[in-house]
Amino acid sequence: QVQLVESGGGLVQAGGSLRLSCAASGSFFSINAMGWYRQAPGKQRELVATITTGGTTNYADSVKGRFTISRDNAKNTVFLQMNSLKPEDTAVYYCNAGIYTIVTPTIPLNYWGQGTQVTVSS
Fold first, then answer.
1. Do residues 31 and 76 touch, judged by C-beta distance below 8 A?
2. DSSP 26-89
């Protein structure tokens, strides 16, 4: 069984920084793209950033220049460095990954982490 486990959320003042981590564990062949999404109260889940196996990144306009996504393929882990945080960044942040499993070795299945709360105070 494949699991994505996030860590690193918390409470921070505006202008501060946080670093989120998400590690994949279980039985699988490899991981395709990985990413971070977030969901604020009363709003839909939105994309924050994604990164391919080769390191190509994509960011939401709202976080460009402030957030950096990276990954360690050897450790099956993706990171999100968040700087210059704003109160509007407050949300539950979810890790996402496309994973090639024993059951589906040619089609990546979509997995989600349990979410980690990020709260930015003004």
1. yes
2. SS-SEEEEEEEEEE-TTS--EEEEEE-TT--EEE-TTTTTTEEEEEEGGGTEEEEEE-S--GGG
Burial of 48 (0-12, 13-18, 19+ CB in 10 A): buried
Ordered per-residue pLDDT tens for the chain, 122 residues: 899 999 999 999 999 999 999 999 999 999 999 999 999 999 999 999 999 999 999 999 999 999 999 999 999 999 999 999 999 999 999 999 999 998 888 999 999 999 999 999 99
Residue type, 112: W
C-alpha dihedral, 62 to 67 to 72 to 76, nearest 10°? -50
